[in-house]
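Table S2 (text version). Query chain:
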Amino acid sequence: MSNNILNLQPTNVWKFFYEICQIPRPSKKEDKIMAYLMEKGKSFGLETLQDEAGNVLIRKPATKGKEHITPIVFQSHADMVCESNSAFDFENNAIEPWIDGEWVRAKGTTLGADDGIGMAIALALLEDKTIEHGAIECLFTVDEESGMTGAFGLKSGFMNGKMLLNLDSEDEGQFFIGCAGGKSTTITIENKRRSIPKELTNAFEIKVKGLKGGHSGDDINKGRGNAIKILNRVLYYALYHYNVALSTINGGKLHNAIAREASAIVLVEDKFKSLLQAYVKEFNQIVKNEYFTTDSGVEITISEVARPKDILDDYIASDLIDALYACPHGVIAMAQDIENFVETSTNLASIKMEGNQIKIITSQRSSVESKKEDVGNMVEAVFGMIDADIESSDGYPGWTPNPKSVVLDTLRQAYKNLYQKEPAVLAIHAGLECGLISEKYPDMDMISYGPTLRDVHSPDERLLIVTVQQVWDLTKEFLKILK
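Corresponding structure-token output:
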């Protein structure tokens, strides 16, 4: 079934996308995909370079008569978010794309079209000998999804281009000229254990599952549930009404994804056993009602499990549950000057028990630098009230729109030529590498665009087939009319 995508148009782009899907490329483990890109560049007979950070740059000279045109960079990132509905070895196994009506999806995993389709478009440009164009450079960066270390490590002078087209946006017909900055706040709490009192005879696992999750920037305003926050509501009530003891709690996976699943093992006395079970069943319906439109698949279950060997210290457990309840999550402020645009948000991304530590990862975004720091301080203040170590990253900068952008004017004209209508010109709440690149190349004129994707950073990720052809045609028209 996966080979069906090779029959899609444009075949040159889908050919490369299929090849990319066969190559494992988790963040920070991009050796295989970068080797593939190096091999492709050399097989095209083009100058192919790799910098100290691991980024790959492939240069294609201008075609005859186009040497005077300003050099252009097409930029995409090589890594992908690795989320699955069941156990999947992203470091060794291929992604299995398949056609579902007008969409391409993957079997049980993220598709990796973020940003595999951007890479595929860039490779098709490099291979194609029929397109007339000025000098082209295609930059493929590493580790965009988990730290932007490729963009951080990019050195000035590596690229010659003066215009950059970032192929990492998710709505055809929308051009992005600015993005939010971001940072992360990590909390570490001692995983102090104690023996289980003999009266706590019943052990249960409580699970939250079935949520959509999604991108913590693009999807944060869609009203979707956070599995950690929902689970913690159960634990908070159970702690103060049924005197449960907490043994383990884990949830979420990635700093830039909304938590889809979470689970905890708790212990309870006989007299509260049936009450706890009834409460979870009742609360399951409450949450279904709360998210009946935005996250109707949510499910909270409770099942008996073997009694664990120990539990979390009572004081640490109550502090942890209180702090998780108070920790902000979601949209904090909407932009004052752009309608329906999120200005500031924070994501309670994951909680994991690792040896003698409980680690909580959160991420903050804002198009206003001071607001980014403010929401980070909110998170720090919450966990500062309990015995926790808090570490805040420096983060990455936002990307300030350029109202005099030549690349915007040209791409907009190309779009009007093809479709006889204006594209939408926007800023995006998600982080893009453009902000970091602009620090190294302050004179670079930049824009971000791409085909339509939905539910990225989740196993429901899908790519709208027709928009791949539209973006390919738009890219060729842009190169044709650029002077």
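Notes on Table S2: The domain at 183-392 is CATH 3.30.70.360 (Alpha-Beta Plaits). The chain has a mean pLDDT of 95.
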